[in-house]
Amino acid sequence: MQRRTFHKVLGSGLLVAASASLIRGYLFANDGALFASYEKALLTDAKGEPIRLSALSTEVPYVFYYPHVSTPCFLIKLPKPATQEVALTAASGETYLWKGGVGKEGKVVAFSAICSHALTHPNPEDSFITYIPKDGKTLAYEKGGVVVCSSHLSAFDPTQGAKNVAGEAKDPLASIVLEYDETNDKVYASGVLGVEMFHQYFRIFRPQLADRFQSARKAKQLVKISTATVALSEFSKEIIQY
Ligand code: FES
Predict the structure, then answer these.
(1) Ligand 1 site, residue 197, Cβ cutoff 6 A
(2) Does the CB atom of residue 169 touch ligand 1 within 6 A?
(3) How is the chain split into domains, by residue range?
(4) Whose CA is nearest to atom 3 of ligand 1?
(5) For ligand 1, is residue 191 a contact (CB within 6 Å)?
(6) Which of 36, 99, 173, 225 makes the best surface tag, with the fewest CB within 10 Å?
């Protein structure tokens, strides 16, 4: 990996250090307000080995924690490249630009798995939010190929930056900024773009998170160095979808 770095200047003057050799992925909010940079973390498998994007199964939702050690995200390899920029608008009216998937074919995308409506998210017991394959069916939307939150039947289109396309959700799912190293097929998470729900998530689920991560303070810790990625079917005992 080439280590030379440059600084990418965002609209607001925010600077992001980036490797010139590997960046291909999401761009940032027009004014930086809906973008937050976090420590870059390598996505690994459960054993700590780097995952290779070419080895990911297509249309299988994977889960990893980022940017906090308790905030779940989806990693999905789509059936088709998602290489077009998409301008997204938050419920607040703020706009931002999503640049599409990463990987050799631009098929791999990542989003926060915390629903932007009322914070449904995968947990070890169950998940009411999942990706419905292209040929799958859901009550939430006219076709598959969407992330569906079955709590109140919201749907998000992962080919469009997880834009909310049906249901109660008024915001897209927040995008996880991925950096792809094409020299070795590894991928890193490095930021969050869009409306993140972490503050509310920590407040509302404080007892559960404190229980699962030893304390509420520990649940808020930021991911460092790497984060493990597992299939949603292994992460949650039961996946509920309508
Ligand atoms: S919590 Fe997801 S649709 Fe309501």
Answers:
(1) no
(2) yes
(3) 23-229
(4) 152
(5) no
(6) 225
Where would I find the H helices in the chain? 198-204, 206-212, 216-219, 232-235
Provide the pLDDT for residue 29.
Answer: 60
Assigned CATH class of 23-229: mainly beta
CA distance 37 to 14: 10
β-sheet with 154-157: strand ranges across:
129-132, 146-149, 154-157, 163-166
> How far is the centre of ligand 1, averaged over its atoms, from the C-alpha of 203 (Å)?
17
Q: Kindly tell me the number of DSSP H helices and DSSP E strands found in the chain.
A: 4, 17
Mean pLDDT, the chain cut into blocks of 10 residues (242 residues total)? 32 33 46 86 97 96 98 98 94 93 97 98 97 97 98 98 97 97 97 95 97 97 98 98 96
d(CA 153, CA 145): 14
pTM over 0.70: yes
Looking from the CA of residue 149, the nearest atom of ligand 1 is: 2
CA distance linking residue 1 with residue 114, whole number of Å: 33
Token output for 47: 């054993």
